[in-house]
From TrEMBL:
Biased composition (Low complexity): 408-421
Region (Disordered): 408-428
Single annotated GO MF: oxidoreductase activity
InterPro entries hit by this protein: Acyl-CoA_Oxase/DH_mid-dom_sf, AcylCo_DH-like_C, AcylCo_DH/oxidase_C, AcylCoA_DH/ox_N, AcylCoA_DH/ox_N_sf, AcylCoA_DH/oxidase_NM_dom_sf
Protein name: Acyl-CoA dehydrogenase family protein
Amino acid sequence: MDAELSPEQRAIRRTLREVLARHCGPERVGAAVRTPHGHDEELWHRLAELGLPGLAVPARYGGAGLGPAELALACEETGRVLLPSPLLATAGLVAPLVAALGSPAQCARLLPRLADGTLTGALVVPRGPLTAPLGLTGGRDGDWAGGGRSGGVQARPADGGRTWRLYGEAPRVLDGHSAGLLLVAARTGGYARPRTLLFALRPRGAPGVAVTRLTTLDETRPQARVELRDARAEPLERGDAAEALEGLGGSVAAMLAAEAVGAADRALGLTVAHVRSREQFGRPVGSFQAVKHRLADLHVAVQAARSAAYCAAWAAGRGPRPGDGDPAGTAVAGQLALAQALEAQYAVAAEALQFHGGLGMTWECAVHLYVKRAASDALLFGPAHRLRARAADVCGLFDTAGTTAGTTAGTTAGTTGATTGTHEEVML
């Protein structure tokens, strides 16, 4: 892995940071989340002109044709300012799924509009957290899409199979209230031949579709409840939906990890500035050794999480290669990076609130926004121990049957080295 950023990547980071510094202060964030769309539409169009929504969209559909590394860098900058935007849902989830599963006609119709920002999207997962269908906290055989003829969202053919009808609901959809395109994971085939497909539908003015914005802990990450009652939709059938979702997990985890790193880095910066200016006993609070040690620990945690996020983005862009073994192992870097980033973000937010005291939870101070983001992310995409447990399962780290067999074989052959090697692998 080459950890050095390319000139193009540095330009993306620099340009985005400058734009967000001018147009996305705490006051504007607070005003944007209270609009009907939940984000600043003018700023979103400005970012779309810079090509942000289409960073990873193929060039033949109007995108930049880049990859997870560039998306992660963009998310790190948007995370720094807690930008409320449909970037994650549109560029990280919907656009890649349309490109992977959509027919040529569907790609030609949808991807250019997703790339230029005139159309935003949301992924509708009926059950459980978003991390389950992405393979970050569970396998593709989970019940996240509902099962049988009840629960989740069900789909049935209509008009002789030319169209499909969806019925069911999803309680929490990221940016679902403002999306112009919904990708709905729905079950088909009933008990006999169950299968999960992705269906595209336009929610605005569509009969049988009700979208309700929810009150959330973190206002900068809006969510909605989507209810479908015989809603007309078209399937994306070019490939297996569960496989495509799981294959996307590493990229999404890298984006979320980078976003958490950006938020943690900014919260730490606010805290350092505060302890430099606040005085106690005639000297700045930051000059006390105990304060320095705590801030140094946070700095190390943020830098380690940043390195892990960059590694996850590189691994997602590289993808599985022949001879790698289990293809699902490519998502392990994303799972571990996201777990580390969530922990670093929460630790920094907690310490920032502690150092700011009562000031940290006032509307005049931005710290409370970072505290809410850290708590919300831990609930939506964690917890960290579940991400690590899934990574351990994918790697077979705690495959006790294999470990026992290897140890027994080594003992029988009288080779102490083989037995020691088995134990070392388990420890790693």
